[in-house]
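Hello Y.,

Per our agreement to keep a running log of every chain we model this quarter, I'm adding this entry. I've kept the format consistent with earlier entries: sequence first, then predicted structure.
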Amino acid sequence: MPKLLIKAYFNVARSLLGGLVFDKVIVANKRQLDLFRGITAPFLLTHDFSRISVIPFGCERHDDHDKANGRLLLSSLSEGRICEEDFLIGWLGGTYGWFDLESVLSAISKAILKNKNIKLVFFGADGRRQSELLGFVDEAVKDNIIFLPWVEFGRRFEYWAGFDISLVWGGEGYENDYASRTRNFDCLTLGLPVVQNEDDEWGERLEKSGAGIVTNLSSLPDVVYELSGAPGRIAEMHHSMLNLASDFYWSRFATALEAISVDSMSRGRRLIGIVGCLLLFPALLFFLVSSVFIMIFRGK
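Predicted structure for the entry above:
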């Protein structure tokens, strides 16, 4: 929890810095636009709303990464624990506290009990975190939860091509409400179907395109189990994901960025913004420390 608290205050601090000092601010979706406006409006910056633009995150073009080779790479990395016949679910991001992993693992356990070929793969979790996560699953399915080291970023698509689906699940709270789920854009490059919970950006996008499934915790076990025996459905979602990808190539992001026209701040205006930030940051630090003490006190 302290890490989440620090992250929340860091996000506020950088948003204030951007709103008060930067010439232009880019956000990924309409929800983030509203959040940023809400942060800056109290400082009489409503006239600066035009400096905030929505440009969705981007993805690389599809490069025909071979699924069989990806499966071999994952199998080698797992020392043989991953087999050709497995239905592989990739958790492609970190195992951070703002994800509701306890509920997710509990749900996936139910699917695994019905099909022992289902395996869920995490990356980059240290030994302590692995023990914590395994504590959320039944003893009978622990061998189906696989932890791998981080792979080289430039080669991630080679490995991730071996997965059947990607699982994304945000916990209840502001992170799930406002996040753009940047890892989903990597799934666009691969054509990797996504199963996720509801949010304000990707949920509607996946449902309209047929590139993934938006569900809830109570239905997640059935969704995963059904997909594990439906290669035809997986293939359809794969093609839908690739069709969706063309709307988000980085070239389109660059074109939208180049089209933005904004006047630079005057030196006086920027100086006022910098001074304002310097005055506000001690107040943020005070509230952060106060929140930590309150958290510790309540913990007792």
